[in-house]
């Protein structure tokens, strides 16, 4: 095990500094914290997400034992350029960003769209990726992924008409437990008061949706080629990326562990953040 040599002075995600790194002709926004040295953990987030959409409890929990780096995709938040319309482009951007930061090997944690990107990075550069954490996500060509927009728009409209944040409808079940978890999660996203990221533009939001549709319509990838361990997580009531797709991925990876949380939706890792952090830390340490 590689010894960690320096503790990052930033004590929490809500106080992490906004930084930029140039990869090619694009300046990418990112934040980092945690223990330096060893294999860094790179966080890849969901459709339309910026840095402030990462759950502080999850990032802080992971940073207790790891060097954590969270990024904005091209054209999103503080990153420059135009948002790509394919996962392939996002994966190539991620590879370039990791190399620009000077890392030869990383762990990847991808949530939702980020899980698509993480899979594609691993297939393109398997030597770059040590371990994969894939949450609320599915494989290329997975049934229903190309209909994420069709499923999401009515829920977004419902949220608008009821004066709620769309994530409350998209990420959580409608049970009392789900509603309570949604409220707690949305509260955590507001904890950072200074240096907040820029929100996504409508154009970037729609271009990322095109990338999701294309991922759902492309030919399945050969996940059996990926020899690195994978932790696959979902909720039993995920309406955006159904848990059957997580089960499918778990069967196709040579070395996979599957966790399905009960009474949980797309945002199961936010609802069960304490348990998820424990599962992720154990997986990364194994």
UniProtKB/TrEMBL annotation:
UniProt keyword annotation of Disulfide bond present: no
The AB hydrolase-1 domain, residue ranges: 40-270
Record's keyword annotation contains Hydrolase: yes
Keyword list, A-Z: Hydrolase
Membrane-spanning intervals of the chain: none
Record GO terms (molecular function): hydrolase activity
Alphabetical list of InterPro entries matching this protein: AB_hydrolase (IPR050471), AB_hydrolase_1 (IPR000073), AB_hydrolase_fold (IPR029058)
SUPFAM superfamilies hit by this protein: alpha/beta-Hydrolases (SSF53474)
Protein name: Alpha/beta hydrolase
Species for this entry: Telluria mixta
């Amino acid at each position: 095990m590689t010894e960690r040599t320096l503790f990052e002075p930033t004590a929490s995600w809500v106080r992490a500094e906004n930084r930029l790194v140039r990869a090619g002709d694009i300046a990418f926004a990112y934040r980092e914290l945690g223990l330096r040295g060893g294999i860094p953990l790179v966080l890849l987030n969901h459709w339309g997400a910026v840095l402030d959409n990462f759950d502080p409890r999850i990032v802080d929990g992971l940073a207790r034992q790891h060097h954590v780096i969270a990024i904005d995709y091209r054209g999103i938040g503080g990153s420059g350029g135009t948002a790509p319309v394919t996962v392939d482009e996002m994966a190539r951007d991620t590879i370039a960003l990791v190399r620009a930061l000077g890392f030869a090997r990383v762990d990847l944690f991808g949530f939702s769209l980020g899980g698509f990107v993480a899979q594609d990075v691993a297939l393109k550069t398997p030597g770059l990726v040590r371990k994969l954490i894939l949450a609320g996500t599915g494989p290329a060509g997975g049934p229903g992924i190309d209909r994420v927009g069709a499923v999401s728009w009515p829920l977004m409209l419902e949220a608008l008409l009821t004066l709620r944040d769309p994530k409350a409808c998209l990420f959580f079940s409608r049970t009392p437990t789900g509603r309570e978890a949604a409220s707690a999660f949305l509260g955590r996203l507001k904890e950072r008061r200074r240096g907040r990221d820029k929100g996504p533009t409508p154009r970037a939001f729609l271009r990322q949706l095109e990338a999701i549709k294309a991922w759902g319509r492309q030919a399945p990838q050969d996940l059996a080629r990926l020899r690195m361990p994978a932790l696959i997580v979902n909720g039993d009531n995920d309406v955006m990326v159904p848990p059957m797709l997580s089960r499918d991925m778990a069967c196709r990876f040579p070395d996979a562990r599957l966790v399905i949380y009960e009474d949980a939706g797309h945002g199961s890792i936010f609802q069960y953040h304490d348990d998820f952090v424990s599962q992720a830390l154990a997986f990364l340490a194994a």
